[in-house]
Amino acid sequence: MKQWVVRSNRYEPKFADMLEQWANHNNIALLATRPAKPRDKASVEGAVKITYQRIYAPLRNETFKSIRELNIAITHLIK
């Protein structure tokens, strides 16, 4: 979001103070990306396709009672 970047820099962008405080409070790393450059679209779409085929498709007919059960099933598929 453009309004959160105070100073644009390829390697170390400066974010608004309020956003940095929020990120520190929630233990989130702030990273900026290139604006409006679709160079990465194909690789991201490929990663989504692989994830869908390897994780979502095998589990789509399963029912899980908790997030822990779901995480265990995903872990077994990833290994």
TrEMBL record:
It comes from the Bacteria. This is Integrase catalytic domain-containing protein.
